[in-house]
Amino acid sequence: MKPLRVLVLMHESLVPPRSLKGYTEKEIDEFRTEYDVITTLQRAGHTVRALGLRDNLSDLRAAIMEWKPDIAFNLLEEFQSIVTYDQHVVAFLELMRQPYTGCNPRGMMISRDKALSKQILSYHRIATPRFAVFRRGRRFCLPRKLKFPLFVKSATEDASLCISQASIVADVARLKERIEFIHEQTQSDALVEEYIEGRELYVGVLGNERLQTFPVWEIDFGTLPEVMAGIATRKVKWDRRYQEKHGIMTGPAEDLPEGMESYLAKLSKRIYRALYLSGYARMDFRMRPDGSVFVLEANANPNIARVEDFTESARAAGIEYRALLEQIMRLGLSYQAPWTRVEA
């Protein structure tokens, strides 16, 4: 790939140092993705500029107008401390006619709204756990269609925020308590869905029109007791010491039923297109012991640190980290945003 001017967008608190010397592993984990992307692109010969954003777009506009980057590499996960506002930054990039990596604004909006995405998937007859949304400030009323045990999470937040063993509830009293907890802690509506017992599987998808899927990945809960296994809590996903203590890891899914790998690949592509995604995404599934599969979430712009589910599954498909980042940039440059179809 020819050298490009790459403007890497991230939260202002995550702009990484030039060297990791003197930083603890815990401190590095905070900006690991940003560091991995920037240093890898620099080593590949690209001219890279990091831009930290929090609540003001003027710096972004100035960087685009003055530096004229070939592409903006989007690593933002929030804007103005609001997760769902990152889509507006991407919309701003389109208004500026600036090519960018990752998902388009419509796909981000739909996939970030977990209830809306589940409604769309249901319309397309793609199995997803039955659910209900409990809105802040509304009277509690349990729909008859929902059967315990239930799983309670934020309708908009991601990265396993406020997900713990207490997220699985078995009676009305605990359900009300957990819904109130989500309302208070995340200031968002609560999504309540039927808990699906089984294996947790991930499938990475790369592409705009022509899509490529990566090998099915699975989380191994290690030595966690059975009562605590089967749920990717925040500690399971992000606490390095907790992972090492219990031998928690992710890797290629083994001993899948015959034909399951190809079925999940086709299903992931259906979901990707149904939700208008582009660039790259990760699909999260649950598979019951009987082999039935349910979609949990579609994650636009998943974590792409050098050692992460999406990047490791890409590596298993023969795409090394540098090549993956450059392919993500090619997809950004070739994406047909609406402004590309309008005459100047």
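(ticket continues) Second input and output from the same batch:
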Amino acid sequence: MRCTCHALCAFVLSTAAATASAQATVKKDGQWRAALGVGASHASGNTREASFSLHADAVRATARDKISLYGNVQYARSEGVTTSDQVRLGGRGDQDLDAHWFGFVGLDLERNRFANVKLRGLASAGLGRHLLKSEDHGFDVFAGLGLSEDRYVEPTLIDGRVRASYRYASLLLGEESTHRLSESTSFKQRLALVPNLRNRGEYRANWDAGLAVAMSKTMNLNLGFALAHNSEPGLGRKSTDTLLTTGISVKFE
């Protein structure tokens, strides 16, 4: 029971301290804009807990192209034991081919100790289509090919063998949208599916969503939700992880 209480307390502290879905302002003027959120908590006495989170988002856009970068770190300890250790980094470059179609290249990196992922990389390229493109709303779909490589903290049974790493060709299918709901409120979400071309039936999926409410010209209140699914996570590990976060971010424009 004591361990359960400590784990629950660590989860609550890390969620409360997290800064979710920092959203950089997108303006098509060729200037870099960024948003950064940092959160932390510490408790001592009968319960010893500590947590730290960081979320960063940067965008440079013009009328024909866009470069976007992101980073997300979650770390927590409870009673001297690490209870969360996740890092996600990545970026994508888009180039419009005409009013509706665009090409893209991307790179995503991830570490999640408790999912046994020492390093996961996905390099991708493909085509997308703007289904909705206005000042207040945007909705894109995209598809491409990728090369994925997983390196594991501990060797695990993957595709019939115990492996320390696993490389495979994959598809990348997804959609993303941005919405300005009011002068002070914006919402964005992204869904990406990565089917394994080496072993049919295996896939990974990530869905990220964030709501930002402006408190001033430079500060936002944020609410975020992230879901990650792996159809073959390895023995003894769950296939789905979720994370709900709240916090405040600062914009740099």
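Agent notes: The mean pLDDT is 87. Helices lie at 2-17. Closing as not reproducible unless the customer responds.
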